[in-house]
């Protein structure tokens, strides 16, 4: 096993010494307060893999992290820490990252500190290294299947915070991630709603198709970080005539269903706001139903079972949208969907 060293004391060594000092003296006055200084110290344990400039290292499968969005860096640390990432026996890179993330102490500000430091690093634009890939074919796939969440310019969308910018990434990492999503090595952990959303459109992709999309992403203009915009307008309160609701369905259920429908990674990512539909999923506000007649119990069953081979959508709808929502929550979402076309 290779042991990595850096010119500064490693954070883990420092943390161990601090813990020993705390036990002995009841406090550790050398511990930096949460913030940039602590983040810089923590980065000592990140740089052996991700590089001193955060540009990544293909030989270790460690991606570029300089240039990533703050919210995405934070979310991925948390996912590694709880096991939503790095859970699969075939994910060697994730299995290496997971224990590193769990050496941090979120309750004491470690996550925020390392992210603050990473955001100070100059953005890097890793060069293209993969050979082949049809950019024109990749552009068509990207526009149809990816831009809905990641934006037409690859910088992400404020309305879909779980879908990160795709710029400033290594092409080998993009291709590797797509293969992992396709194969269930990533995005298949229970409760990973956004991962399930990502898996659906790439199910069945060939390596050639992955290379095409990756080649297109690498042609995008290397723009700076997106500045988060204002939050979207609040959804209007549910206004539905109780007399049209099926037996056992209440207005309160419809309201809960609206909230669940628009929760990150459940329905809104594909069906869009208020069920307007898009390239990834059909319009739910009209009276056209593709797989069922639109009756309430049918909607419940469709959400529970999913749709393996949609008539029009480019990818499958996973059972329960790939999430662990309960039967009661499914019935609430179905209640909301039922009212959209009525």
Give the strand tally.
0
Q: In sequence order, what are the helices and strands, one letter per element?
A: HHHHHHHHHHHHHH
**Count of domain modules:** 3
Rg calculated over all Cα atoms: 22 Å
Approximate shape: globular
Helical content class: 40-55%
The top-level CATH class of the largest domain is Mainly Alpha
Kindly report the average pLDDT value.
86
Which structural class do you get from the secondary structure elements?
Answer: mainly alpha
Task: Tell me about this structure.
- With 342 residues, this protein is an all-alpha fold.
- The protein has helices at 11-25, 36-43, 47-50, 70-82, 92-102, 110-118, 135-150, 171-183, 193-202, 207-217, 251-261, 268-271, 296-305, 327-340.
- It is globular and about 65 Å long.
Please give the structural blueprint:
Elements: H1 11-25, H2 36-43, H3 47-50, H4 70-82, H5 92-102, H6 110-118, H7 135-150, H8 171-183, H9 193-202, H10 207-217, H11 251-261, H12 268-271, H13 296-305, H14 327-340
Summarize the structure.
The chain contains 14 helices and no strands. The protein has 342 residues and is mainly α.
Feature tags:
342 residues; mainly alpha; Cytochrome Bc1 Complex, Chain D, domain 2; 3 domains; 14 helices; globular
